[in-house]
Design brief:
The protein has about 150 residues and is mainly beta. The chain has a domain of about 100 residues: Protocatechuate 3,4-Dioxygenase, subunit A, CATH 2.60.130. The protein is about 15% helix and about 35% strand. It has a four-stranded antiparallel beta sheet with strand order 3-2-5-6. Strands 4-1-9 form a three-stranded mixed beta sheet, with no helix packed on it. A two-stranded antiparallel sheet has the order 7-8. A hairpin with a 6-residue loop joins strand 5 and strand 6. It is flat.
């Protein structure tokens, strides 16, 4: 009986002392949105989230201030992502894998270090956009089976 209790106790200690390969903690990020000239973009919609499980996470949706800045925080296991949209600019997507972006990142007192890093996202202005042409597929002629197919690169 004593041996069984000892084995159960040792198993419990070993399980409790194991650290997850992706521990979860609080994280805070400042996102700075600028244009191609480095000027702040105010009123841009920034939305995204902090991933803390395979299927769930803390999400946010905020507009940038006059300095083009937002702050977001949430529970993080490994990935922070955001999508930035503003009329007149192309959409920009940022996916930040915390441990890859910050190789010395560590969890201290339940918070990821570095705490509140600034991520700069550059929005590219739309200049002379070219509209896409859409055609129905039923107009296309498919090649015959077992027949050679040729095409012109010019």
């Amino acid at each position: 009986m004593k041996v069984t209790k000892l084995i159960i106790g040792l198993c419990a200690i070993s399980v409790l002392s194991c650290q997850s390969p992706n521990p979860m903690g609080k994280a805070s990020v400042t996102v700075r949105v600028v244009d191609q000239d480095g000027m702040p973009v105010s009123g841009a919609e920034v939305r995204g989230g902090f991933e803390y499980t395979d299927y769930d996470g803390d999400s946010y949706k905020v507009l940038t201030d006059t300095n083009g800045v937002i702050s977001a925080s949430g529970r993080l296991m490994s990935i922070f992502n955001c999508i930035v949209k503003k009329d007149g600019y192309y959409e920009s997507v940022e996916v930040l894998r915390w441990k890859e972006a910050y190789p010395n990142a560590e969890l201290k007192y339940g918070k990821w270090q570095p705490w509140n890093p600034t991520i700069e996202i550059v929005l590219k202005e739309k200049k002379n956009p070219i509209p896409l042409i859409v055609r129905n597929f039923d107009e296309a002629v498919l090649p015959l089976e077992n027949e050679p197919v040729g095409f012109d690169l010019f």
